[in-house]
């Protein structure tokens, strides 16, 4: 019997618009889903770019006004791939219209805006999720399984980096297509909301909530020409951010992100050290999980490099044959598959808006600490997450 369709309206045709469209295309081919995702409509302001995007990915129709997209009766879910400062308005309007909402990360510009979004989405009772895609890289999901099985024992340290080098040139303008990440009005913050948010989301998922942080940020290039105004304007985003903190389970946090690490394009790494074992993962080698188990016999004890491609490892039985790896794009495909399965089962798909708000609170605490030079306590979005030390 033919499956019922899940009609998707994607807002935004940039980098994320492409990763999501690709994911909707592939999800039903690789995963047995209760609903079939259909690229019903693409939405964006520039008609020529929109048409090129829609034709390329096979969307059935286009809209140049997201309000019209939301008003359409034939759309079940709104997927938001626009700059951060438009997430709240679109997400809340979509929820109020009864649509399911999938929102690119970070959820919002800051915690208070995120709180509004959570209030509206929960009142509307619509399925929702935020695209923190790295959770769904099979090696990272495997790390979660290993940690949850208790193999690491008591956790002492959680260390994460997200390093890039694409904004070193002082000639690079801020604002406008592709460069909105440098404009505080559009992005909310710099590396904290763009890159550390990924690290924080994964950390909370793997190791539980953060309780307090102390941070420093730096803006290396103080002024840049603004693409939209044509004027040289003050740069208000953080180019680099380093923070330390405590997790509720007693372990210590050490996080660093920068867009000034010459030679690194998107080097997201994480390492967790427990009493009995340690885990290490690296986005540039994303199909491997490094694992050290102290209980191994002494003469063969050492770091193992697990090639996460076998059928009994997360998501992998749905792909090729053992030994053949998948990559970055598939983490988005997994999110589509998990979202649709959750919708079919009437369950939430993590991270929900409320869970993503927890990351927003940590980002707020990090930025507040960098400003004040003091330790700042993190707010929590759920009682369960607040945990106990
Ligand atoms: C920034 O360069 C960026 O594209 C982020 O916005 C993404 O979230 C990250 O996954 C890769 O880097």
Write structural notes for this entry.
- By secondary structure, the protein is an alpha/beta fold.
- It has two domains: 5-134, Rossmann fold (3-Layer(aba) Sandwich), CATH 3.40.50.720; 136-328 and 351-377, Dihydrodipicolinate Reductase, domain 2, CATH 3.30.360.
- The protein is built from eleven helices and 17 strands.
- The strands form three sheets. Strands 16-15-14-13-7-12-11-8-17 form a nine-stranded mixed sheet.
- Strand 14 (277-282) and strand 15 (288-293) form a beta hairpin.
- Helix 5 runs antiparallel to helix 10.
- The protein is globular.
- It starts with a strand and ends with a helix.
- The structure holds alpha-L-sorbopyranose.
- Residues 164, 194, 198, 266 line the site of alpha-L-sorbopyranose.
Name the CATH homologous superfamily of the largest domain: Dihydrodipicolinate Reductase, domain 2
Query: Can you write the helix and strand succession as a string?
Result: EHEHEHEHEHEHEHHEEEEEEEEEHHEH
Main β-sheet, in a few words? Answer: 9 strands, mixed
> What is the highest CATH level, the class of the largest domain?
Alpha Beta
Bound ligand species: alpha-L-sorbopyranose
N- to C-terminal distance: 52 Å
Number of strands: 17
> Which secondary-structure class do the elements indicate?
alpha/beta
CATH architecture of the largest domain: 2-Layer Sandwich
Dominant shape: globular
Low-confidence runs of at least 5 consecutive residues: 384-389
Count of alpha and pi helical runs = 11
């Amino acid at each position: 019997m033919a499956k019922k369709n899940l009609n998707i309206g994607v807002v935004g045709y940039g980098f994320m618009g492409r990763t999501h469209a690709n994911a909707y295309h592939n999800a039903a081919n690789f995963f047995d889903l209760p609903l079939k995702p259909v690229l019903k409509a693409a939405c964006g302001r520039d008609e020529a770019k929109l048409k090129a995007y829609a034709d390329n990915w096979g969307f059935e129709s286009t809209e140049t006004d997201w309000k019209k997209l939301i008003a359409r009766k034939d759309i079940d879910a709104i997927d938001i791939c626009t700059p951060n400062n438009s997430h709240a308005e679109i997400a809340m309007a979509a929820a109020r219209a009864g649509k399911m909402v999938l929102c690119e990360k970070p959820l919002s510009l800051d915690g208070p805006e995120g709180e509004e979004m959570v209030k509206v989405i929960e009142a509307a009772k619509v399925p929702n999720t935020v695209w923190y895609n790295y959770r769904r890289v099979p090696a990272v999901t495997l790390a979660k399984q290993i940690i949850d099985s208790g193999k690491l024992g008591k956790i002492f340290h959680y260390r994460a980096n997200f390093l890039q080098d694409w904004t070193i040139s002082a000639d690079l303008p801020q604002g406008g297509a592709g460069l909105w990440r440098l404009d505080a009005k559009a992005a909310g913050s710099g590396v904290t909301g763009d890159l550390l948010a990924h690290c924080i989301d994964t950390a909370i998922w793997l190791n539980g909530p953060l309780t307090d942080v102390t941070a420093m940020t730096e803006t290396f290039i103080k002024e840049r020409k603004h693409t939209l105004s044509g004027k040289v304007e003050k740069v208000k985003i953080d180019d680099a951010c380093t923070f330390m903190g405590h997790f509720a389970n007693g372990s210590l946090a050490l996080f660093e992100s920068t867009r000034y690490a010459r030679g690194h394009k998107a080097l997201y790494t994480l390492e967790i050290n427990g009493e009995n074992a340690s885990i290490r993962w690296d986005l540039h080698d994303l199909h491997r999980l490094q694992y050290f188990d102290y209980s191994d016999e002494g003469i063969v004890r050492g770091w193992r490099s697990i090639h996460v491609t076998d059928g009994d490892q997360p998501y992998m039985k749905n792909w090729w044959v053992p030994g053949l790896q998948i990559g970055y794009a598939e983490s988005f495909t997994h999110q589509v598959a998990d979202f649709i399965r959750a919708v079919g089962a009437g369950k939430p798909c993590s991270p929900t808006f409320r869970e993503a708000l927890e990351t927003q609170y940590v980002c707020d605490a990090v930025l507040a600490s960098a400003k004040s030079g003091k330790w700042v306590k993190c707010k929590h979005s759920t009682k369960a997450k607040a945990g106990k030390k």
